[in-house]
Amino acid sequence: MVGTRQNRSACLPRAHTVLCDVPTFHPPHLCHIPASKIIANQHATRFLDSLKTYLSSLNISFAPCTFDTFHLFSHLVFCLSSILEVSNAKLTNIVRASPPCPRRGRCPPEAAHLNFALVRCPDSNSYTEGTAIEGLHVVQVCAIFTLPDYIPLYTKIQGPLAYVEWMTPFHTKDRASGLYIVSRSTQMHQRHDDVILVANIVHSCHLIPEFGHAVDPNWTADTVGTLCSWFFVNAYIDVHTFSLLSMNRRNCI
Questions:
Q1: Distance between CA atoms of 62 and 147, rounded to whole angstroms?
Q2: pLDDT number for residue 175
Q3: pLDDT digit string (tens) for 70-101?
Q4: What letter does residue 237 receive in the DSSP assignment?
Q5: pTM of the model
Q6: Strand (E) or helix (H) holding 232
Q7: CA 108 → CA 88, 101, 112, 127, distances in Å?
Q8: Number of C-alpha atoms within 13 angstroms, CB side, residue 208?
Q9: CA–CA separation, 81 vs 27, rounded Å?
């Protein structure tokens, strides 16, 4: 998607039907993280610009800088709708946006876990109009955070925020598998990103890279999301996702 840059978060609807369990405290290693570290470690290239745009949409005049610090969350836990095919003991869904972990003792270092997710989006999409996925969009969640209390009027913001990078809308399906195909969304030749309320995130989303005839040797778990051009939206990752994407069942997430 190419065009003039605009802020979708200003008109995103609140997701009242989704129950999200946000951790009640921040582990010490996720407290007071400078913006410069978030940008470097969590692929949040335009974090400051997107946050400034979001604050401006709320009439908050504040220009965040690289030395401003934020409390991070490593994950969100969602309570899924009860459906006949799934036990009520398995109705949790997790979206991770955890920074990389250094080596600790015998434990090897871990790359950042930046999950893809489905969010509610105000953009119209004639291809999904009237279907179960109407109003849903795929994003990569790069950071989940709260604002420092020295930002003016920060109490106007209801709940934690997420820095996300948008994927292209649901439109094209692969003929062989029937899976939706998405790629990185861009505006003005840059990745299209935003800061949104976590209340608009509704479910995790698993993407399968389009490998082609040979796997790129430069792809790793940490880089494939950046280097791969096209992805298949995996409808088979769990029953709720299958019900939504393949069975067109409403109210299953």
A1: 12
A2: 93
A3: 999 999 999 888 998 999 888 999 999 999 98
A4: S
A5: 0.88
A6: strand 230-233
A7: 35, 9, 13, 45
A8: 14
A9: 29
Amino acid making up residue 36:
S
CB atoms within 10 A of CB 63: 11
User: Does pLDDT of 230 surpass 80?
Assistant: yes
The token pair at 168 is 């292209």
Say how far residue 13 (Cα) sits from the centre of its chain. Answer: 16
Per residue in 113-125, pLDDT (tens digit) is: 999 999 998 888 9
Tokens of 246: 């393949």
- What tens digit of pLDDT does each residue of 2-50 get? 343 455 554 454 443 455 777 777 788 899 999 999 999 999 999 999 9
What sign does the CA torsion over 199, 172, 45, 5 have?
Answer: negative
Token representation of residue 53: 């745009």
User: Which tokens belong to 111?
Assistant: 């790359």
Q: 153: phi > 0 → left, psi -120 to 50 → alpha, else beta; which? A: left
Length of the chain: 253
Query: Strands, E, within 5-115: which ranges?
Result: 19-21, 33-34, 69-73, 75-79, 92-98, 113-114
Question: How far apart, in Å, are the Cα atoms of 110 and each of 27, 66, 97, 107, 140?
Answer: 17, 24, 13, 9, 18
Instruction: Name the β-bridge partners of 141.
Output: 164
DSSP state of 101: B
Report the distance separating Cα 205 and Cα 42, nearest Å: 18
